[in-house]
Amino acid sequence: MSARGLLGSDEPLATRYDLALVDLDGVAYRGHEPIDGAAEGLARARAAGMRLVFVTNNASREPEAVADQLSGLDIPTRPDEVMTAAQAAAELLATRVPAGEPVLVVGGAGLHTAVAVKGYRVVASADDEPVAVVQGYAAHLGWTELAEAAYAVQRGAWHVASNLDLSLPTARGFAPGNGALVGAVRAATGVEPASAGKPSPTMYRLAVERAGASRPLVVGDRLDTDLAGARAGELPGLHVLTGVSTARDAVLAVPGERPHYLAADLRALLVPHPEPLPDAGWWTCRGAAARVVDGALELHGTPVDPVDVARAACAAAWDAVDRGEELDPRAVPELPV
User: Fold this and answer.
1) Would you say which domain of life the source belongs to (predicted)?
2) Is domain 13-84+199-270 given the CATH code 3.90.1150.10 in the classification?
3) For 9-26, how does the pLDDT look when each residue is reduced to its tens digit (9 = 90+)?
């Protein structure tokens, strides 16, 4: 199968990999609500020897606050098991800006702390002549803060974004994310910012180094950030279907955003994963079968698990596209899991 296809594992992922790099929103929780199977899956994965680091594009909160929220959802977590985009942004700053320089921070407490801990002088105005602007999401941000960022970038400050997520999942739906706010500064200045968050693999690299892991696994719900970051960092990625990207999205994923494993929720860490295999023109996975004929995805069989339909469909679609065939998105149905 294509090197960009799904993998199989004869053993549970929790024993195959020594570290899970777990996204938060849409994976461990949704807004302030727990996700079914998350606490159980992570607890049993830990018991099997897998270590966890929670890696989030959210730069607004301190690691301590994130750890407290997880612990309150029956996922006991230490602050050093949290890696935020704020920490990654501060690390990215350090590649070009010496400690002690003035940096305009536009974001929440987590970003202010991360930049200050790295040794920079945090300022709030473009008139303080910052050499860089670091921008992250915070619910309180408004025109005044975005304008200061734009003024500083126009004067030559390096613009660093904690992430470029256009949307942010909440209990009420999707709200504008940091990427939407960064877009306002970009529109005013014409300057393309650097980004520290996913899909850049920077946070994954830092988390792996911190943990001293040798066999990390990325776990996420968004193909365009979590799983794209896994591909960019040449790390295996598990796509759980509890958040933003659906099984249909996975079938239609471009090569740089394809997951290596597909599952309903975090309990998937506790079980082996079947690999789809070719069979007489079909791609099969434990009773499910799929193929692409004249641009249309065809499904057949009686699967052991509904996820097996999605796995077979991904294998068939990706193989067809990689061989140069057309795949009509209109012929790819929603795949309930």
Assistant:
1) Bacteria
2) no
3) 999 999 999 999 999 989
